[in-house]
Amino acid sequence: ARVNDTPILLSALDLYARSRIQKNAGDLTSSERETMLDELIRIRLLADAAETAELNNDSQITAELDIQRDQILARRMASDYLERNPVSEAELRLAYDKNIDQLSGPQYKARHILVNSREEAFTVIEELNRGQNFEQLAIEHSTGPSGPNGGDLGWFAAETMVAPFAAAVRAMEVESHSLEPVETQFGFHVILLEDKRDQAAPGLDPVRAELTQFVRQEKIEAFVSSLRAAAEIVIDPPGL
User: Fold this and answer.
1) Which of 7, 86, 180, 205 is the most exposed place for a label (fewest CB within 10 A)?
2) Whole-prediction pTM value?
């Protein structure tokens, strides 16, 4: 198609159809092709009108266009880099060995009550010492997102929690609660350790997809770091 002497290429129709209805241009029915092409013509007409009105000179629109262009090129560059540098079996094995501690070892099943002050936490501990139900106290007092569920955190590895919380859980006996408030950046926790188990590490195959994505991300980060090291980057002070 051609709109005011500006062509709409088959490659544009193909890209648009894949993004809109997940079909290649060659697989479109006559009706779908007509619809996709009509939408592209409509977009071109409005874009032409915007340029006639000189909206393309607006600083915000220019910034948006620049960012979109950079994002498209950045995604394509990352994809191209990974195609030329695929994840090897050796890299997967190394990532598996490096992360084996997070894939195995003790797991804990716990509940917690999160409050805003040490005094509130001690009040909760006193109520627990008098035999009050932990789940009910969590529902009544916890400010954390797990409060409505009785403070239930499910099963987790200690390494996934913030350091003070992890240290407290590791030191607790099963079916006991905190005797002292546990302070983190989120507030003050009272913890109930319900159970503990040893988790055997899975083999490489069950976690292959997750590790592949992890290694791919590491490759991109290393590539960006190399680009940053080779580039001249000047950041203006705020306000300029």
Assistant:
1) 205
2) 0.57
